[in-house]
């Protein structure tokens, strides 16, 4: 990575000052004279540069200089992005570092600084972590107009030490407009907020959503010097959505500086007009929704007891609703016709799941909490009682409505039982649709952002090899402790563990491609490694998390795996192998195989 000219000049000056301070030039002259006297052979006319460097290194001159210059290296590392592939993100602890950052001078940027936090009262009693101690951390993620950013993790504390700066490119439109410098008026019309998400990572690597906040940044357009500071109160999620999590100190600045700023009155008027427009759309939709509901009840008064949810503002759903919405969105992204279903399970418990409609009419239910899929075959209520009816395997009992990003349909069939429900969504005698135009008025793609929501995927930050080894060592320790509690000794066989690796690779390959490969070679290798008269047992299992203790507890619940871990007998040898396969967004597939071999005694 090349340094900006001003940074290179500054770095050269620092090095020159340090060399002069240490009198390095004088020391080099002394070593050069000594080397010429001692090491130059009579038939050799001159020393090469390599010979001189070796002499300097041998006498420790180069090491001394590098140690003294170490603080310069650290400073440069903080000011430069860690990787050119990542979004521009750099530390700013004193003054702005924008002048030292490579940016396009023809584009307009919003420089957003996070300058610490306070009032994170949940962590009020937490002691300051010791150097090298593993602790829970906060990470702040930002999304703005298809750009993604992530702060450095900071230890969880009452006043978390956030000190990060982000360059958000404001004007990222289609080709043709893309190179034009956006002025204040143009940027005032860009209503996209900065989405800020706070994530907590515990000592086991498990992540938790702490808060989500949409920052209105356009107040900076009306500040006198193109710079403004504000505090952001983060609220919790789910059942704690009304509880304050903490406060972040934010500083906003436009770069390059605006030639002409707007008055604060103009900015406030624009924001007020946008709020009024949104409120009017929602008001008109509510009027329509109430009329739709009256018509729905006129079809059959008993519809009043069905789970038909039309419109909700700032509603915080439970786990099944959130998972169902996410799964439905993913399936829609894959090109399937998917809907969220709202109904009940056994004993009338409200529930949400996902349904896809195949081109051949096949209806498939997806349970978002477990990943299970069920084919729906409706029973015919008019059939003779003695006639054989398809027995449902799914746990769902009733269904009130289905919806996705474009459609909402209420179930108006005589019975809301899933077992006899017909999912012909085009038949308005069975499913009452809501106007798609009304839905678009509040759910249109451009209603909340002027760009399609296609943020880039982030590369994995997990080192697969290191993580695999760490989990494997933890599992070895857990197995040894568990066997010790049972009065058993543990002998590990590294060669047997090594032979398990290809099997785990083939399992992941089969999981992702549905193609089986390498099984015969694995079995042949195991046969060669297990002597005659010995028995081999293996137990592979797949996880999507990296918590070794949690995985071990799950494995022990399997009788077959528990039998391997607690194996007793003659010449018992144990093996365990872990393979972590990484994917974008730091998602991972963790494969673990426990194995043992022992001498069979009959």
From TrEMBL:
Residue ranges occupied by any CEP76 C2 domain in the UniProt entry: 102-259
Residue runs in coiled coils: none
Stretches assigned to the CEP76/DRC7 peptidase-like domain: 316-434
Primary localization class, coarse: cytoplasm
Keywords in alphabetical order: Cytoplasm, Cytoskeleton
GO biological process: regulation of centriole replication
Keyword Cytoplasm appears in the UniProt entry: yes
Domain CEP76 N-terminal: 10-69
Any single Gene Ontology cellular-component annotation: centriole
Subcellular location: Cytoplasm, Cytoskeleton, Microtubule organizing center, Centrosome, Centriole
Domain Centrosomal protein of 76 kDa C-terminal: 461-599
Family, as annotated: Belongs to the CEP76 family.
Function of the molecule: Centrosomal protein involved in regulation of centriole duplication. Required to limit centriole duplication to once per cell cycle by preventing centriole reduplication.
Protein name (Swiss-Prot/TrEMBL): Centrosomal protein of 76 kDa
GN (gene name): CEP76
């Amino acid at each position: 990575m090349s340094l900006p000219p001003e940074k290179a000049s500054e770095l050269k000056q620092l090095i020159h000052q340090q060399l002069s301070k240490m009198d390095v030039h004088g020391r080099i002259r002394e070593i050069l004279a000594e080397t010429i006297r001692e090491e130059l052979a009579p038939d050799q006319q001159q020393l090469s540069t390599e010979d001189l460097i070796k002499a300097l290194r041998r006498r420790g001159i180069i090491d001394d200089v590098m140690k003294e210059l170490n603080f310069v290296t650290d400073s440069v590392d903080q000011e430069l992005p860690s990787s050119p592939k990542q979004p521009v993100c750099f530390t700013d602890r004193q003054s702005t570092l924008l002048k030292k950052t490579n940016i396009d001078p023809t584009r307009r940027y919003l420089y957003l600084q996070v300058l610490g936090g306070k009032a994170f009262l949940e962590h009020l009693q937490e002691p300051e972590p010791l150097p090298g101690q593993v602790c829970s951390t906060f990470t702040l993620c930002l999304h703005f107009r298809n750009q993604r950013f992530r702060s450095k993790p900071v230890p969880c504390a009452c006043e978390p030490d956030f000190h990060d700066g982000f360059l958000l490119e404001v004007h990222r439109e289609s080709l043709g407009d893309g190179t034009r410098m956006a002025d204040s008026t143009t940027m005032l019309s860009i209503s996209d907020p900065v989405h800020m998400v706070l994530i907590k990572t515990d000592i086991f690597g498990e992540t938790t959503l702490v808060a989500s906040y949409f920052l209105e940044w356009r107040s900076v357009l009306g500040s006198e010097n193109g710079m403004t500071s504000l505090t952001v109160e983060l609220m919790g999620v789910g059942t704690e959505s009304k509880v304050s999590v903490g406060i972040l100190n934010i500083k906003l600045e436009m770069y390059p500086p605006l030639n002409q700023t707007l008055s604060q009155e103009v900015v406030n008027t624009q924001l007020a007009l946008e709020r009024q427009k949104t409120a009017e759309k929602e008001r008109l939709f509510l009027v329509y929704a109430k009329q739709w509901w009256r018509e729905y009840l006129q079809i059959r008064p008993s519809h009043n007891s069905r789970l038909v949810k039309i419109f909700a503002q700032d509603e915080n759903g439970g786990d099944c609703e959130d998972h169902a919405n996410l799964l439905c969105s993913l399936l829609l992204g894959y090109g399937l016709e998917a809907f969220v279903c709202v109904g009940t399970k056994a004993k009338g418990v409200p529930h949400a799941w996902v349904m896809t409609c195949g081109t051949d009419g096949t209806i498939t239910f997806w349970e978002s909490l477990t990943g299970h899929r069920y084919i729906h075959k409706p029973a015919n209520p008019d059939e003779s009682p003695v006639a054989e009816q398809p027995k449902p395997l799914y746990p769902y009992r009733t269904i009130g409505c289905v919806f996705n990003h474009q459609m909402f349909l209420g179930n108006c069939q005589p019975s809301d039982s899933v077992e006899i429900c017909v999912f012909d969504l085009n038949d308005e005698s069975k499913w009452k649709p809501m106007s798609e135009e009304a839905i678009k008025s509040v759910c249109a793609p451009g209603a909340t952002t002027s760009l399609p929501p296609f943020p880039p995927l982030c590369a994995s930050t997990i080192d697969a090899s290191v993580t695999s080894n760490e989990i494997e060592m933890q599992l070895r320790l857990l197995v040894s402790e568990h066997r010790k509690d049972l009065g058993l000794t543990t002998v590990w066989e590294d060669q047997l563990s090594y032979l398990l690796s290809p099997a785990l690779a083939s399992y992941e390959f089969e999981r992702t491609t549905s193609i089986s490969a390498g099984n015969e070679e694995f079995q042949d290798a195991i046969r060669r490694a297990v002597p005659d008269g010995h028995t081999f047992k293996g137990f592979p299992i797949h996880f999507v998390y990296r918590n070794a203790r949690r995985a071990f507890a799950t494995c022990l619940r399997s009788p077959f795996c528990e039998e391997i871990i607690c194996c007793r007998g003659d010449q018992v040898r144990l093996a365990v192998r872990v393979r972590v396969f990484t994917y974008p967004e730091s998602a991972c597939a963790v494969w673990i195989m426990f194995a043992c071999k022992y001498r069979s005694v009959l």
